[in-house]
UniProtKB/TrEMBL annotation:
<dbReference type="InterPro" id="IPR036390">
    <property type="entry name" value="WH_DNA-bd_sf"/>
</dbReference>
<dbReference type="Pfam" id="PF03466">
    <property type="entry name" value="LysR_substrate"/>
</dbReference>
<dbReference type="InterPro" id="IPR058163">
    <property type="entry name" value="LysR-type_TF_proteobact-type"/>
</dbReference>
<dbReference type="InterPro" id="IPR036388">
    <property type="entry name" value="WH-like_DNA-bd_sf"/>
</dbReference>
<keyword id="KW-0804">Transcription</keyword>
<dbReference type="Pfam" id="PF00126">
    <property type="entry name" value="HTH_1"/>
</dbReference>
<keyword id="KW-0805">Transcription regulation</keyword>
<comment type="similarity">
    <text>Belongs to the LysR transcriptional regulatory family.</text>
</comment>
<keyword id="KW-0238">DNA-binding</keyword>
<dbReference type="InterPro" id="IPR005119">
    <property type="entry name" value="LysR_subst-bd"/>
</dbReference>
<dbReference type="InterPro" id="IPR000847">
    <property type="entry name" value="LysR_HTH_N"/>
</dbReference>
<protein>
    <submittedName>
        <fullName>LysR family glycine cleavage system transcriptional activator</fullName>
    </submittedName>
</protein>
<feature type="domain" description="HTH lysR-type">
    <location>
        <begin position="6"/>
        <end position="63"/>
    </location>
</feature>
């Protein structure tokens, strides 16, 4: 019996709009116009003779029919993408594509990656640090390390570690004319910023310091560069546990004060559920968890 199939070219538009609950964001992801997304979904609804979205003035939401249908379509597209990837000669089972932030890659992952390579010489690792939240199969990403709340619909998310935030600096700043001995001494030193949500204003307030300008100093859009600036003695940065652990252990950085704030976000290893059946993905996931437990 012939299969009854929907208009297949409309499904990616529907799945993206359902995932984002936004026609505009779906259009951006698929590199088409808002109108193209709207027409594709309207055509799909006409063919199915059902309403998939409730459309508001500035928002859309899935109907009671659209919600489970979106989940089924997402699973079907994932299966199709996985089958296509498997059949494609361009994608080798020996190449592992990892997505993460530049800070985590530069300050934690890359210095340890040689150990994974030593244990898995048949797997070539490619690191992506674009800063954009990967859509995995569409981006050719196998596994990701994400920093957030851990809720990623349709994906497996496993906690790696939590994180504290605290000032760190070069040991040289503990000496000289204005040595760092208490939080108030920060007024004599350069603050280094990297755009992290817990900023200097938040930390200074928690330390009851009011005579330091929390916006002054050096600003980087990369945590890697911000930490390296502190290593070079250019100022004090708010260090994050995972990003400064190696520098603290090696003595390149020190904690001048014990005050720390706990971040609401945590690190997670994230991947599509079926990906764990690939040896390269499981090997990297297991290695990550082992490395974290020994950190």
């Amino acid at each position: 019996m012939p299969r009854r199939l929907p208009p297949l070219n409309a499904l990616p538009s529907f799945e993206a709009a359902a995932r984002h609950l936004s026609f505009s964001r779906a259009a951006d992801e698929l590199n088409v116009t808002h109108g193209a997304i709207s027409r594709a979904i309207k055509h799909l609804e006409e063919q199915l003779d059902v309403q998939l979205f409730e459309r508001g003035t500035r928002s859309v939401r899935l109907t009671a029919i659209g919600d489970p249908y979106a989940q089924s379509v997402r699973e079907a597209l994932d299966l199709l993408a996985a089958a296509t990837k498997s059949a494609s000669a361009r994608h080798s089972d020996k190449t592992l594509n990892v997505s993460t932030s530049d800070g985590f890659a530069g300050r934690w992952l890359v210095p340890r990656l040689y150990r994974f390579h030593q244990a898995n010489r048949d797997i070539d690792v490619r690191i992506s640090t674009t800063g954009r939240l990967t859509t995995f199969l569409a981006d050719g990403i196998d596994i990701a390390i994400r920093y957030g709340g851990g809720e990623y619909p349709g994906l497996t998310s496993e906690l790696l570690t939590g994180e504290e935030v605290f000032p760190v600096c070069s040991p040289r700043l503990l000496e000289g004319a204005y040595p760092l001995r208490e939080p108030g001494d920060l007024k004599y030193h350069t603050l280094i910023h990297d755009g992290f949500p817990i900023d200097w204003a938040t930390w200074l307030r928690s330390a009851d310091v009011s005579d330091v300008d929390p916006k002054s100093g050096l600003t980087f859009d990369s945590a890697t560069f911000a930490v390296e600036s502190a290593v070079q003695g250019e100022g004090v940065v708010l260090g994050r546990t995972m990003l400064v652990a190696a520098d603290l252990a090696a003595g390149r950085l020190v904690r001048p004060f014990r005050q720390a704030l706990t971040s609401a976000s945590q690190y997670f290893v994230v991947y599509p559920p079926r990906a764990i059946h690939q040896r390269k993905v499981k090997a990297f996931r297991d290695w990550l968890l082992a490395e974290i437990s020994h950190s």
